[in-house]
Fold:
Amino acid sequence: MSQGNAQIPARDVDEGGGKLAAALAGRTRPRDWRAAAGPAALLQRYGIVLVLVAVFIVALTQNGSFFAWSSFQTVLSQNAAIGVVAVGMTFVLIAGGIDISVGGIYAAGSVVYTRVALTQSLPLALLAALAVGAVLGSANALLTTRLRFNPFVTTLGTGSIFSGLVVMYGGINAIVPTNAGFGSLGNGGVGGIPYLVIVLVAAVAVGALLLHRTSFGKSLYAVGGNLEASRLGGLRTDGLRAVTYVISGLCAAFAGVLVASQTGVGQANIGGNVALDAIVIVVIGGTSLFGGIGAMWRTAVGILILATINSLFNVLAISQAGQSLITGTILVLALALDAMTRRVA
Amino acid sequence: MATRSARPEIAVSCRGLSRSFGATRALRDVDLEIPAGSVHALVGENGAGKSTCLGIVAGRIGPSAGEVRIFGEGFSYGDPRAAMRLGVAAVYQELTIIPALSPQVNAFLADPPTRGGLIRKRAMRQRYVQVCGELGIAPAPDVPAGQLAVGAQQLVEIVRGISADARVLLLDEPTAALANAEREALFRLVRSLSERGVTIIFVSHNLDEVLEHADAITVFRDGGLVATRDRAAWTKRDLVKSMLGPDAAASLLDAELDEPDPAGHAASAGNAVAAPAAAAAGDGACALRVRGLSIPRRLHDVDVEIRRGEVLGVAGLMGSGRTSLLRALAGAETEARGELDADERPVAWPRHPRAAHRLGIAFIPEDRKAQGLALEMSSSDNVALSDFGSASRFGTISSRRIARRVAPLLRVVGVDEAKALAPARTLSGGNQQKLLVARAHYQRPRILLADEPTRGVDIGAKTEILQELRRLAREEGLAVVLVSSELEEVTAFSDRIVLMVAGRVHETFDNRDGDVTASTLLMAAFGAATEVAS
Structure:
């Protein structure tokens, strides 16, 4: 007789039963399950798009020119950096981890980029910043996979360490490089489209390709969905999870570069809300905090929702305290939805 | 039972007790009355329902139907604390010790002596030392319980049950981890508790122990109660026969097995298929030769030969080391030490599942939900899970491409292709298990290890899975190793059978003529278990 958890029965819902019933009894937002296209299943799967539309409508009522191309791309540009962090975070979450240290790495990217730019060319500065991001991500990878530390607490700790190191390296004051064209990445554009928007779209596209169209990406879903099954199945579980932290580190450092170029300065104290915002974006979209479930298009929707809400904050002149309260509430609601759908399943 | 009155009070009464886990009926319509102050043993094969029955009485599992009364009182099912309040204490097979806490705190975990909400540490210690004294064991109250030997931890659990002043004490295989001296001390205590009026119900695989210490014995089979009789009315042979059942005994002992009967599929996995034909199997070359395989405390010096073209059955009671043997071969046991020849060439023992893969070993783990499937991924993704790379083209991959690629495999194992893109979670247990068989195909192994491939699977799927395993051996020349706690499956589908007892290979049976029966195995296993115990 098997004991304990093994005895909890599975709800077997496929045999002869209606597909709608299966969809209702199952989790919302199933991946790759086009067979179950009942209205309830569709609503559960794509409900987040309705939320996005609702947010757009509210934005439109507050600001009639919201959809004017110029204002829309401004909103996107302002959220490009955090969007890039969220793309990296998506990989970590789907593989069953979490990265709280992205704020520290983000600050490191900004400070390393600007300090190296003081003496070197911009491409070299960019490479230096990305290298630092990869190294810091590798440190997270080593601790969480090889040494099996809990990822949440580990990256909470390393994030604090990284932030401290950044201040020691760059000082507390803003670093202002004077290279020609330093601000063009953050403020320029081509054919009327800001570079930041292009970069954000490219990051999402490359992320989607990597996640959904390579065996690496597929394997991340397996590792996040069932670590032990993946290990016994012969996947390199440690290596796969490690790579997600390196990707997250690279994305966060690159986002720091973007924001430095955008503002014209490198600063050590800019990482504060980055982890929270990035996680909010990914989780709002419907990617699970517990791994194995999610998609890159969900992160794109999350970016649009958060970007729209941020622009509403500005239009309505909501205080910093109010913004913090609303963002936090949205995260908790997204988690509640995730937990509820899991309980149903 | 010095003071049993003419009409003894009933301590535990079960009426119409049933419990299903998914499609599996673990317990069906059990009526049982146990008089106060008696020592009652429950026996049966693995999965017969005895632990489920115990679990319901302990309030750990809720029944699907029926009722339990403790001294005439009902309680809210599935709530261990409610059962505790009625005086039921349970000691389970797996340890429920909290390793970081001291034994005395563990012993009083649910109900520590308190005054004004604060724990009275001194009173707790006194009581603990006193109970240990009664048991005749060393108390060691201050070491973290996790540092004690397994046997000592088990004793702490028993102390927990006793110090709760239980009226009904449930023991699930209490002596499995105990040395002889501890075992005797335990049964002395059981007797003295019973004389004080405590009712004791215990599950055991050791039939000698049962026949020596129980007042009455109940046999379970396939979730149902076969018989309850006083100890004097049982012999060891009766017990084994009742555990196996007349059907199994008849069908297995008679020559029925030699006649394949398509209509018999519904009857049981065991007799649905003809016994292995002598011609095809067993003469294959040695795919894996295991010598001196040991895992500390679990496997001792195991030698096994696994041959191409045959199914090697591994039988044994729970805890005999069946699963450990398979996991060691699959590279899932880092502590495994031993020599391994693959195709007659010595190779390093696989220390990681990937290393086992390189040797051509595929593994179907025993717990498909925890160890086998990523339930949110689609069926076809789960089949391809161990190697998505080989389904990609120019470095790109898609779910549809994977689905097309694994579709033939789904056909082979009998999963509807329409389910290829549905999450594995939505499939029935049988289909989920078939996905794991399909994955084993996908890996193109030379050796296939299947641990309980039919657990919790309906009878039709059971037969299909077992037939497919045998086909892989017969037609594709794989070396297949089958572990199952259903002995009828092992005897019906294996060419050779290794019987494991207490972490050792006890005996190897040649079953090419299909003449090894479940009762042979069971008698050998119980006989040996008794030898080891005494």
Remarks:
- Chain A touches chain B through 50 residues (CB under 8 Å).
- Residues 1-36 of chain A have pLDDT under 50 and may be disordered.
